[in-house]
Please model this.
Amino acid sequence: MSHRTFWSIALLAVTAIWGWSFVAKHALLGSMAASTLNAWMFTLAALALLPLSIRSLRNLQRRDWLGAGFAGVVLFAAFSLQTSGTALTTPSNAGFITGLCTVFTPLFIFLIGRGRPSLKQAVGTAIAVVGLALLSLDGFNVHQGDLLILGCAACFAIHIVIVSTFTTPDVAMASAAIQLGVVGVASLSWSLGTHQFSLPGTLPSTFTILTLALVATALAYAIQNRAQAVLAPEKVALILICEPVFSGVFGYFLAGDRLPPERLAGAGLILLGLAVTELRLGRLAYFSWRRS
Model:
């Protein structure tokens, strides 16, 4: 097996884990506050990445610390919205709508004056917006959970732009550890400040939290960073499109999600919009992993 094939398969496995994570979070949020779940996940993930980042942390400049801290604050907002929204919608909807961060990214790039969206990006965005309407609208009402997830997707898009601006390959792992640490500390403060903090109530819950923290967050970061070094941006982007697909599959088999025809069509249009948009995102597509 070639080096590139190995990392392609590893990254595909990561997207499957991210897809499963929506189902896992949805189940945990029945007995745990969103702030508490994020506090456990990201504190543990940051601690797991720390041994891998100590050497590069020593070489960080003031600009690197500021950039990573800023990215961490935005990531905290993204995951706070995502985890809160996941409790109020289906795992499938959460996965598909989170994927819209990809189509938001060219818009934010344009707004900060770093480039104009291409025709394909504009078409992809239009297709995805139609899909979002079919997936989320109930008449003229928008489900609250879906709206929170939409805000999460926008924050992830902002995070993509920030990371692409401030992070270089030699400090990527250290930057990731800092960002996870910021999310963990902010989530813990939120949880303690609102008197929501709690310990996992059962052994299965504890195991699920550890899996989310160590595998779906810490390990996923490490694999994603390593895969970027050997795979073309377009290939990374196309692999990442599988995340909402996996969220739909796991939602169907593990959470009993059953999308009616119009919402199934909406999910399909979102995937099509993502594919059209991702094909032209260039190097910024490297940072559109998300996650979950």
